[in-house]
């Protein structure tokens, strides 16, 4: 069976080879621009599927116009850009994460593609199709086809296993980033509520506050040890539930604080209700804040634990990823969690 002059064997072989060469190009680009040797692929193995799809599409669709430099260049601009756009959008819909983002680049489309890299794809397509591919194709066809099928079968099985493993890993990472975003929101709400309550807390409650804080310090080490016993999924579920409770509590406390402040003229009522209730509320907020800090620390440690496999590798591979409906960068999220104290 032939498709635009290429057999199924050719298509399967070129997809695999260019997926690997694309990965090599990504690693080399990252090494030159950042000075670090990092696995830049979405998968764990030395492959980038988007390059495989891109080159196969170029070979098939540009075969009729391969003798025209201009049409080859234009096809090299449009076809890879379309694949990058669809791939980026699909990954965002699945994981709510932008694995790459061109929002800061001029003439970008939704942050998924930009003019600068589209032109680079065009020049790259000319170079590869005119110079690299003819040499590479001749070399690859020196291998007997039956041996090639056997080798590709093994490699494609590994490819599929890697894809399945990475899909679950990326889903776990998206879940943890969602949770950390909720935790950061909870910590911000708690800090704001505690700040509002300072002006309404009676002065003679200071001793009660100090006693409560001492108990928190003693309990904090026990809570941290207990948190380490959770699995990653349990830790995320616990942290998210706690953050949501913290947000509800902080907002209620903030409403109470504003109500008390608006009734400041009623000194007798504040004297009766302010001391014990305000102190109890603020101690509860501080307790929630301490617990959320511990959950945040544990989750961040888990995310960065594995630098070669798991979420930690994806974070290293895509340091400029943005997550969630608010399009929050990793640096912004880390800063929000750092400001908790």
From TrEMBL:
Pfam families: ABC_trans_CmpB. The chain crosses the membrane at residues 12-31, 43-62, 69-89, 109-129, 149-171. It comes from the Bacteria. The keyword Transmembrane applies. The keyword Transcription does not apply. Signal peptide: none annotated. Keywords: Membrane, Transmembrane, Transmembrane helix. This is ABC transporter permease.
